[in-house]
Fold each of these.
Amino acid sequence: MALPLVSLGTVALDTVETPFGRVENALGGSGTYFSLAASFFTKSGIVSVIGEDFPEEHLKFLQGKGVDTSGVERAEGKTFHWEGRYEHDMNAAETLKTDLNVLAAFKPKVPKDYQGCKYLFLANIDPTLQLEVLDEVKAEVSLCDTMNYWIESKKDELTQVFERVEGIIINDGEAREYCGTPNLIKAGRMLSDIGDSKVIIKKGEHGALFFHQDDFFAAPGYPIPNVVDPTGAGDSFAGGTIGHLAKHGSFKTEDIKKSIVCGSVIASYVCEGFSTNGVKDKTQEDIQKRYDDFRQLVAFDHTPP
Amino acid sequence: MALPLVSLGTVALDTVETPFGRVENALGGSGTYFSLAASFFTKSGIVSVIGEDFPEEHLKFLQGKGVDTSGVERAEGKTFHWEGRYEHDMNAAETLKTDLNVLAAFKPKVPKDYQGCKYLFLANIDPTLQLEVLDEVKAEVSLCDTMNYWIESKKDELTQVFERVEGIIINDGEAREYCGTPNLIKAGRMLSDIGDSKVIIKKGEHGALFFHQDDFFAAPGYPIPNVVDPTGAGDSFAGGTIGHLAKHGSFKTEDIKKSIVCGSVIASYVCEGFSTNGVKDKTQEDIQKRYDDFRQLVAFDHTPP
């Protein structure tokens, strides 16, 4: 039987410094954060690449969470390495170094049993690779992310991806840039119109917006007074959201709203520790607790004003 | 009988340019936007000053909306004039000119029947004047706004205001600046701790947050694809919020949440036109409609994830 969920993303070793500390060569990458977040709700497989230096214990850790790593190729050379710093403003990272290493020549190899999976998530990566994996996996529902670099360098290929997926999950800045408008509401609707996609715009501390035709939903950010390291929050949000959708199977608007709240809960935990520390030991009860908090923090009296 | 609501603020003639047009010497000012927004829910009085050039028709317009203008002094000289421009990013105004004119020597004169009112709102103005009016009005519940200029030039006086009011309504940027932290959750709690105040942080397109002790509430921004001129949105938000509170009398957290949604509705209308055009002809039905929309746009399934 095909997996319920597959992601294409990076598995990385990150060096991150924030006002609260520093980690060197810690487990990171979009595929890692995504599948770890999704693991609260469903099994999933990762299509990615690592180098000879990647610690076996990290793979074991992911496998222990129900993540299938048979799509993670071990290649000659060093693992993709990102080095970044957050200063006073924890909302924006400064990239100090990006060593592509094995990612430079990465050709995604999709295991046979990943084909025909229910959900596919194409994390931020070269849109040419996203298109290849779309073709190969042939999922029932595919969603993608991207970043400013691809908007600027490969807009045509990226537009092809947007046309073909059923869902888009991107940052507010990227949505504004791709659509050429500062108005996020306009941008969300424009993105949705490209391929009649369901669109989620991530706004960091300000939460997330959902757009599809006349449907609109706004989730606030979970209130976190102590953000230790926001690295991976966006991919964890996507992982929690799509993982929850994959668990329940449906891609209907009402279910997406609920899944967005699940994604927000997991992203909030990720921000409270370096690398995967904020989320790796969390339980279903922890998820339920913040899910209930979310209900409270947007609740108001519905009688007429 | 004392008025339910009094505001201290500016009554101005604004020249504003946005990508959607330009108005010259149009009705503006924090007191104007505030009391017009509040007028959907309650009568209120303004303490302010205008010059000899201020058109009588604007006063008549406000009076027609149930605004008491006996606290608006007509002084020798010209009316306070602000000139600003919004370019591509409608979220931030560039101030081109500020002519204080009669505002430079403004000494607030509080009409006798404004004293002992239920609610007092001290819009953004010199904190020394805010303290004087606080002393003179002796309202049951007082709230204040401010701006970066006073945080930088009169922080001690501003802190005295914060200590004495029951509520603070300020922008996200000001909250971060006053508290010296980029984390809005931390900033909201710090502000609330100053005088056990109920704190509302305005975030423009991202909505508003409420803080008091362990209570927290998040309202998204109402989705507006066509922002024409955001001038006055913050003061209109405050006017709608406090006007609704004044109508119902209570300053309890549950009522504040509902009032924040009312304030957000009125602010959303203000953004859709220049000067007061977006809101001046709106009806109770218009308010009700977007209030109902708000319920929908944050609603999600509450069963366990």
Amino acid sequence: MALINRQIHLVRRPRGEPTADCFALVEQPLGAPGPGQVLVRNEVLSLDPYMRGRMDDAKSYAQPQPLDAVMIGATAGEVLESNDPAFRPGDKFAAKFGLGWQTHAIVDARAIVKVDAARVPLSYYVGLLGMPGATAWYGTMKILEPAAGQTVAVTAATGAVGSIVGQLAKAHGARVVGIAGGAAKCDYAVRELGFDACVDYKAAGWKDALGAAAPGGIDRVFENVGGEIFDTLLARMNPFGRIAVCGLISGYNGTPMPIQNFRSVLVNKLRIQGFIISDHLELWPQAHRELADLVLAGRLKYRESAAEGLENAPAAFLAMLKGGNFGKQIVRL
Amino acid sequence: MALINRQIHLVRRPRGEPTADCFALVEQPLGAPGPGQVLVRNEVLSLDPYMRGRMDDAKSYAQPQPLDAVMIGATAGEVLESNDPAFRPGDKFAAKFGLGWQTHAIVDARAIVKVDAARVPLSYYVGLLGMPGATAWYGTMKILEPAAGQTVAVTAATGAVGSIVGQLAKAHGARVVGIAGGAAKCDYAVRELGFDACVDYKAAGWKDALGAAAPGGIDRVFENVGGEIFDTLLARMNPFGRIAVCGLISGYNGTPMPIQNFRSVLVNKLRIQGFIISDHLELWPQAHRELADLVLAGRLKYRESAAEGLENAPAAFLAMLKGGNFGKQIVRL
């Protein structure tokens, strides 16, 4: 009897905030792997803010997610059958570019890489040792280059990327101020991640709190959010500051987010650099090596927020876009 | 009988757009130069947009212009008396940091440098071979690094800085699109400066004209203006584009100028760099050498807009802030 593959398709493009009816669960029988192919089971799926951008049919840095096709996404799991000598059943894998929101897949063996799930949990390969980890490392080490004496502000501070950025900046001697939504996240950023301060942007008077947390101004910003938070940071930059623009999640649903304080770029001679980690694939091995060393040495904490079951992926994704996750959002399949 | 020194003082800080009553003409007798000092006559005064910023009492990249003191500004002229062996009466000079809006000055001889007014006109030393030239050269050569196959957009295209930027970018093989106010300036940019196209932002349909002038998008922007023009350019940037932010003259009077298209920074992985040329004094000699070579070889055109007489400096300055100048604005004293 053939295996049944369960998939989540994008069936409707959102207008503004996405809703559950943009997605549909589709079941279909799996065939058998052909020559050079493998049949795999995805055990973990990564949910990431960039997926919201792909749901639109607009010009962006990547092709839109097609309608009535499996949603894109990073996955890791186990090889069930292999017609390639490089893999045997039972091997754990991570997919180079993700196999999407589905329980199984039949793909060319070159689309996956074997990973050591005894060294770190398998799920880390879609986060810390996947795209989010590479993103945090590149933005921190190659754009911000934080140093002792500097104050680094990180938005979405407890998210997959932000939590790594802040800890890397700390490891390089900087003072780190997180910005996150809610007291629980802020407590976590300070007590567990070791940030020097964390500002709850949902609390009244948060701009004053930011001023108190960074009394000498801000030298580096790792930007995941955009909108009013970004504008507030922009106004507090020190001369020769740098801003890595990794994401602008507050605008992903088409919400206008005018920047009022652009003059700070001139007055403070700022450098702003937008980046997408897929432009820098050659640096992923170095990034992942350094991050793995830190996490294995106990010098970097990594938290996950897991939904259970493919059918719950859409709800977890929608919640994540509103900041409902706490750490890297994954789905266990 | 003592010489009378005529000066323009800032006597009132503007609210919004500056007005003539912010300035006052003051006359006072000149003393005699002390040991190591020179008495000089300023023959030419430079008027530059940055002066508007100094008139405010706000945090910026430089100290505010003090009230009831001579307005700052670059000058060049002739030595009248010298108590320093390096200078003789009749020597032509440029002041290192400017001697301000006044006809004469008594200063330490180290505050001026001797210049060759036979090689290029004396007035060039406050423009092409002064701060504006260094600014254009640095932003173009060190930030934008234009190359063949790229489209470079330059705002305030016929101004002191913009006209040099565009010609330098052309000299390095780029396609250059100017943005200027009025048909006469645009004609000049194309016919005289050799730009590939120039868009008159005061004309109806200018955004469509920009699209037609840069059908393949924009790779580099040299930004002098800010506001809606900048926002429009931002939306048309190509991936990996760069923007040098040299000035934001449209906001100098406190006009809000929200940026709507900041998302382009992320989507197109842009680099934006604000800069102030006084941070890069070590490169001025190289900049001026290269610019002098180009102008003497007839490969760079340089136009000036001259007011006559110190008493007309305020009106010329106010007009310049509204784009009334055509080329580098100077005052002949």
